[in-house]
Amino acid sequence: MATRRNRIVKEVKDRLLTRAARRRIGTYRAATVRERWATAVGVALLVALCFPSAQGQSLPAAHPSLSGYWELHFDSKNVPPASLTPQFATEDKSVQYKKDMTELRWCHFMGVPYSMEYSPIDILQNRNGKEIAITSSLRNPTRHIYTDGRTHVNPDVFDPVSNGHSIGHWEGDTLIVDTVGFSNEGVTGIPGGGRRTTDSHLTERYRLLDNGNRLSVIFTWEDPKIFARPHTYEFQYYRAPKGTEAREFDCNANDEERAKFLLGTPGR
Amino acid sequence: MIDPQRHLKRLIAIAAVIYPISQGAVFAQSPATNRPDLSGFWERKDDVGSGSFGGTLERIPKAAIQPEIIAANREAAARQARGEVVSLGSKWCLTNQYPFFMQHSAAWDIVQSDNEIVQVPEVHTFPRHIYMDGRPHPDAAHLQPSVNGHAVGHWEGDTLVVDSIGFSGGAGTPGGGRVGPKSHLVERFRLLDGGKRLSVTFTWEDPSIYLKPHTYELTYYESDPGTYAFEEYCHADDPVQSGSVVEPPQK
Question: Which of A37, A83, B42, B137 has its CA 20 to 30 A from that of A101?
Answer without folding.
Answer: A83
